[in-house]
Amino acid sequence: MSAQVIADPVELEEDLLEELRAVVGDRLSTSAAVREHHGHGEGFPGVFPPGAVVFAHSTEEVSEIVKICAVRKVPIVPFGTGTSLEGHVAALRGGVCIDLTQMDKVLNVNAEDLDVTLQPGVRRKQLNEYLRDTGLFFPIDPGADASIGGMTATRASGTNAVRYGTMRENVLSLTVVLPDGRIIRTSRRARKSAAGYDLTRLYVGSEGTLGVITEITLRLYGIPEAISAAVASFPDLESAVNTVILTIQSGVPIARVELLDDIQMDALNKYSGLDYPVQPTLFFEFHGTEAGVREQTETVEGIAGEFGSADFQWTAHAEERNKLWQARHDAYLACKALRPGATVYATDVCVPISRLAECIMETRKDIDETGVLAPIVGHVGDGNFHLSPIFDPNDPEEARRVDELNERLVLRALAMDGTCSGEHGVGLHKMDFLIAEHGDAISVMRTLKMSLDPDNIMNPGKVIRV
Amino acid sequence: MTEMLKAETEDQVLDTIKWAAAEKKPLEVRGTGSKSMLGRPTELDHVLDLSALSGVSFYEPAELVVSAGPATPVAEVEALLNDHNQQMAFEPPDLGPLLGNPVGGGTLGGLLACNLAGPRRIKAGSARDHFLGFTAVSGRGEMFKSGGRVVKNVTGFDLSKLMAGSYGTLAAMTEVTVKVLPAPEKTRTVLVNWAKDGIYDHDGTKAMTEALASPHEVSGAAHLPAAVARRSAVDYVAGGGRAVTAIRVEGPEPSVAHRCEALRTLLAPLGETEELHTENSQTLWREIRDAIYLAADQERHIWRLSVPPTEGSRVALQILEGRPGEALYDWGGGLIWLTLGVAPDACANVVRQHVAAVGGHAMLVRAPEDVRDRVSVFEPQEGPLDEITRRIKDGFDPSRILNPGRMHKES
Known about the structure:
The structure holds two protein chains of two kinds. Helix content of chain A is 37%, strand content 17%. Chain A is α+β, with helices and mostly antiparallel strands. In chain A, the strands form five sheets. In chain A, strands 15-12-14-13-17-18 form a six-stranded antiparallel β-sheet, with helices on both faces. In chain A, strand 5 and strand 6 (115-118) form a beta hairpin. The longest helix of chain A has 20 residues, at 396-415. Chain B has three domains: 49-182, Uridine Diphospho-n-acetylenolpyruvylglucosamine Reductase, domain 3 (2-Layer Sandwich), CATH 3.30.465; 186-289, 2-Layer Sandwich (Alpha-Beta Plaits), CATH 3.30.70; 292-374, Alpha-Beta Plaits (2-Layer Sandwich), CATH 3.30.70.240. Chain B has helices at residues 10-23, 74-83, 108-113, 121-124, 159-163, 201-213, 226-229, 235-238, 253-267, 278-289, 312-320, 348-357, 369-374, 383-396; strands spanning 3-6, 27-30, 46-49, 56-60, 65-68, 86-87, 131-138, 143-147, 171-179, 181-182, 186-193, 218-224, 244-251, 272-276, 301-306, 325-330, 335-340, 361-366. In chain B, helix 6 (201-213) runs antiparallel to helix 11. The longest helix of chain B has 15 residues, at 253-267. Classes of the chains: A alpha+beta, B alpha+beta. Chains A and B meet through strand 9, helix 8, helix 9, helix 11 and helix 16 of A and strand 8, helix 5, strand 10, helix 6 and helix 9 of B.
């Protein structure tokens, strides 16, 4: 948002570019358009272009590129689809951006052991297309059709996390190019690593600050025998949230549960041509066997009824289900369409499930008092929800009110033992919140960063200040 | 002479570590010592005794998390959760008897520090996946807090995951928080009873693979060769004198009954099937969880192999060929508890060679001290991997005062 970011790009010397060209040939660009495209993600204003962009084709190439940069202490920013939301890819100090999108091969599917090894540029939808004939799927679905490498580096999650977990639970092993260019494999094919420290999880969510991820082994799941979806609207937000809390506490293995408030429903109706009641609404999805799904659906219908939902509707129809989830995935675009020309920023707090109702109700009151247009959506089964303030970035007064609303939201979540980011990450903007949240752990993280990247060349200026 | 430094409070942990860091006095970090046999032997002059940091400090069933001192007995936490029909879903094992110690001696901190998980790991993940946050004192003598009570966060490096499985070599934990979940209402187990004589390890692998690939949400898949099955306290398992493959389903009654039936139909072509209901199931899976069948003969070495599940039985039979020993398979074949007759090197070369060939690794779980001193207990790490491990250790504990040598020989 409006955080003050100081860019201090280094000059790239011509002989460095020559050395890089010797590795990647003409897959190196210094054109303004390419550099600018690689200088920003989504949701964060400002462009911080790298000095050059190289398009890598293999782990070995990445290793050579990193070695060349390491000798001169030139910053490196790994880049996937550029869909992160917190300025993760901004090249604050210029340097070399390694674009990994051309490393987009699925290398090996082990259907029996339920795992797949792939290159970082494979996109999540591409992976599921590839897997379709195997009866398997990969469940993590952030809003964007992001690359698996980027999703790993940002520890992404999505609407399925309540059942399948996030990238943290689903990455089994990584190949990483270290900041000095050496290559490591964090663990072997076997599930359980007893070999030493858990390097896999250290790199998952490291936001490009510890190395470049060049190969990923993921856990896969069998496509459920039956899937059903349901929609229920509620008289008020609190009833909707309480339905979610009771569902989770009852141990229903729900696959997805999404909360959309009345403003968001209105936006969706308008954007996607739907006619849902303009009321707080829950979208559900259930995975399992035919009998299991029926049972889960009935249980949740009962809970929703207790909290005053009179219109619980469910469907096992794939087409209707897809329409529902497409509408949910379009929430961001629907918000943008509410006010053409405006910017949408997504907040990202997460609180313990028992505090969720309290946190959302206080936040809604705050929104109303602030007078900002800010729909609420959330993967509420994890205690994670987003406000999407829609504002004019050229109106400093409005931008300030949004900033302050977000700051109050984060402090509220922290006071409830929550976190400032459930899934979008730290990047540039949340470094100060991180200090408020972690206190002394920041110095431990800094020590780790300096032990593994002593020259601070890997995505400098992100996650923690060195 | 070992000197016990007993910390009564978190601040005393801090003071002790500060002193040790300043004086360069290595400390053995210990809860109750129930797992002191696990890992490499360390002979240190000072023990940092955390046993006083015991007790649940926060538990609200509605919040689905529990916080406790590191030395809180796992049994105490489980009893409390049980009163509210909740559980730690990773199914904490009690390795006490296997290691020659009493039942129920383990602590929550030890469980997390060793990252142990039972049969449900294939569905629910390991201890680390349920480890939400902690407070600890690093080897630098700095107290820090990481993570919290939320199940999802992406705020910086995931230190809980680093702490899980670090065997007390990075920091001494003073409080831990883990996620809990509602306990399943019912449990059933489908047994495949193989024919009377012969070796059915490969067939068991096939049955487990089929069950795990089915949509029936299997929460346990184990194979017991005949000699192992005979030691079960469950008659249906022990009585026939046959090899048994066990597949577990959990959940609400109608769903469990339905899935159990479907699995029996699926597995019927492989062998004769039988089913266990809740009580017998619980007994059987507790035995498997603790590898209790292998506890009796304390002479033999025990290895814990992690392999791709479909390779498990092949690896185990290759290692056992011409050697006295036996195997117990869990996690669909991905985890093998292997006993071997006494040998000066615990057959490490043979074990590691076969395991490495399929991309797995091996840990020497039980062997006399001199053997665990000679043989690398954990899978050896080489090259840059070894260097990163050292750098992380240096980052947390530059003076190498916390459990030095517990995981890898100090150079």
